[in-house]
Amino acid sequence: MSIRDEATALSGDIVELRRALHAEPEIGLDLPKTQRKVLDALAGLPLEVSTGRAATSVTAVLRGGRPGPAVLIRGDMDALPVTERTGLPFASRHDGAMHACGHDLHTAMLAGAARLLAARKADLPGSVIFMFQPGEEGHHGAKVMIEEGVLDAAGQRPVAAFALHVSSAMLPSGVCASRPGPMMAAADTLRVTVAGRGGHGSRPHAAADPIPAACEMVTALQALVTRTFDVFDPVVITVGSFHAGTTDNVIPDQASFLATVRSFSPESRDLVRETSLRLLNGIATAHGLKATAEFADGYPVTVNDAGAVGFAERVIAGVLGDGHYLTAPNPVTGSEDFSYVLDQVPGAFVMLGACPADRDPATAPFNHSAEAVFDESVLAEGAAIYAELALGALTEQAPGG
């Protein structure tokens, strides 16, 4: 029986795990109920299982019966601070928490892949590291797991690393997309406070108004993007929060704003850090004011290895058939902390369409929406892809492979 057929036979169990995870979502790095469900799903398999210290991660190592390298496959486990509005019978039982990004599917698929590969332990030419990761949604969970040794869990660094990510829109169900090079943006944050001197709104000359300077900064950042950066290596700066004052006739002591900064290469990321801080401080000085500007690093650019992407395309065609893989024309402007893994291990981050058949991928609620719904038929497909990626990468890298 093929791995795809075995995954289909396991689909009931994979769906059951996904629904249990979906009903009890947890946020951040501390996911005790989620961790317990994963440990129960892995119980009885011939795995070396360990749990994290700084986060409720799970690392499982499957050592094959034949010598060979190690490969890592990851599934993230955390939910989002969203109140669900899907009306599903297994919808979140916790207001303010929802698996709106599909991490429950990733976790269930990875657990399914562990079962598929464990059944082939004797013939496996090397080791597989299963990385069940908390804290992907802004908590740097992959970095935490790397610091705690996930990349060395098999006793040797993996030769390849792969992650799947479902999408409730954009892609039809069962269609994968990826690309060599930059796949996801770096996401950093600008935090800016302009300090002035408050006073009466009718006497601005007797005060030091921080609002005009802060407004000038917002518009100047847009000009910075268009006049400093190559259009083919873009940068996006969006100010999403601006706060100043309490009423119409009082000049406040300060104004502050927050901006998200997206970039697609390490070079542009370094340049936007340097130039934005210089610009902000220069505008403040020109107004006779002082600015406190911080460029807070978020997730790095997610960069796919070209060889790993080509390999993933072949594997996906073997599992799903021809026509089920698309080369993404552009990077995705979202960010991913699998970037920390791909900074150290060649690999690929692949999107898997999970838009329900009765919805249009162009208009369906997208990931992070309170109404996002995912097609569970991709669970068996994803488990099979994970397993075939690991098995194929080991076979190609093993002695005599």
Structure description:
The chain has 401 residues and is an alpha/beta fold. It folds into 2 domains: 3-184 and 301-397, Zn peptidases (Aminopeptidase); 186-299, Alpha-Beta Plaits. The chain contains 9 helices and 16 strands. The strands form 4 sheets. It has an 8-stranded mixed beta sheet, sandwiched between helices. The radius of gyration is 24 Å and the shape is elongated.
State the helix count: 9
Which percent band covers the strand fraction?
Answer: 25-35%
CATH superfamily of the largest domain: Zn peptidases
Shape descriptor: elongated
* Order of helical and strand elements: HHEEEHEHEEEEEHEEEHEEHEHEH
Q: Spans of 5+ residues with little confidence (pLDDT < 50)? A: none
The total strand number stands at 16
Q: For this entry, what is the oligomeric state of its chains? A: single chain
Largest beta-sheet details: 8 strands, mixed
According to CATH, what is the class of the largest domain? Alpha Beta
Portion of residues in helices? 25-40%
CATH topology of the largest domain: Aminopeptidase
- Rg, rounded, reads 24 Å
The largest beta-sheet arranges its strands as: 1-2-4-3-5-16-6-15
Number of domains: 2
The appropriate CATH architecture of the largest domain is 3-Layer(aba) Sandwich
The end-to-end distance, rounded to whole angstroms, is 22 Å
Q: Mean of residue pLDDT?
A: 97
Q: Helix/strand/pairing class, anyone?
A: alpha/beta
